[in-house]
Amino acid sequence: MRGVAWGISAALLAGAVSCSGARPSSEGAREKSASAPAPAGEGYIPIEPGVRLAYRSVGSGPGALVVVRAGDPGKEFERLARGRRVILYYPRGRSLSGDVDPSRISFENELSDLEAVRKFFGLEKMQLLGWSHYGVMTAAYAMRHPDRVSRLVQMTPGAPVRAPYLDEGMRAMRQGVDEAARKALQESIQAGQFTKDPEGRCRATRRAFLTAFVGDPADAAKLNLDDCKYPNEWEESQARWWDALFASMGDWDYRKEARALAVPRLVLHGEKDFLPLSGSRDWVAGNPHARLLVISGAGHFPHVEKPEVFFPAVEEFLGGSWPEGAASVDLPAAPWAVPKAPALDFLPRGGPSP
């Protein structure tokens, strides 16, 4: 198995650190068939034997926004439920959606799961918001089903091409980690402090790395670690989950498809995000239906770090207008080159530090 470090880093990379907010109760959640539109509230979407997706639905209106992100959906996104329905769901194998075997984790399954969500809620067309890795997945879904997506928000998305951006992002993340906190964590692990406490190790690890994900280290205190209560969010599980997902994606490159996609798209990128800005520029380059908004001072959590900028911009876009500061991007002067992708195990093996 590849290094545990990869699982930790990738879990955080996808926004697995939670924001404060309500989550579906495992006792009170409902599970129903897709024969009728699902009610507001919380429940489970049956996908296949042994696989179900936990969801939370709030608000009402003529349109629906489906929010896709790992970890706790949080109450923050419920601010968008003004005059529309907001549906947040947990991807398969994450948090309340329950654990699944790695053999059932793949990018294709993520795409088909999103389609199952659309059908479950009886949506003919939907708006989408995909955060981090799910900024890639929702874009791929829109490329495959442009008639089913009216607008797409790609929030601090992974890049449209694997290399060199994945490697660059992980390198930038490592550089942003508080070294003193990392060393203290390593000493605690070596001393056996978490031998019988994987949940405690999960929380301690995320606390040590949070500064790499925000523009201002003080904003790390705004994030909580509640997802660590779920065993499928612990380090070993996350290592297996991300290994399976990235192996299924191969050396992806969606740049040409992104240039041709007619679905209106707003790409939001934190100025201080560890993910390369050039990757978000590539999502927009040469497409008259897409624009890029860089949020000053923000990192990977702009809705928590800069809510006064993030939410008005998203509201304006979903309402049919480009927010102030959103800009088009010209195609690069030279044709894109696709460098050889690095191996998935480029992070250190056997330790928690990225």
Task: Briefly say what this structure is.
This protein has 354 residues and is α/β, with parallel strands linked by helices. It is 33% helix and 17% strand. The two termini are 16 Å apart.
Q: Which key terms come to mind for this protein?
A:
354 residues; alpha/beta; 33% helix; Rossmann fold; two-stranded antiparallel ribbon; 17% strand; disordered C terminus
Describe this structure in words.
- There is one protein chain.
- This protein is an alpha/beta fold.
- It has a domain of 235 residues: 3-Layer(aba) Sandwich (Rossmann fold), CATH 3.40.50.1820.
- The chain is built from 11 helices and 11 strands.
- Helix 2 crosses helix 3.
- The longest helix has 15 residues.
- The radius of gyration is 19 Å and the shape is globular.
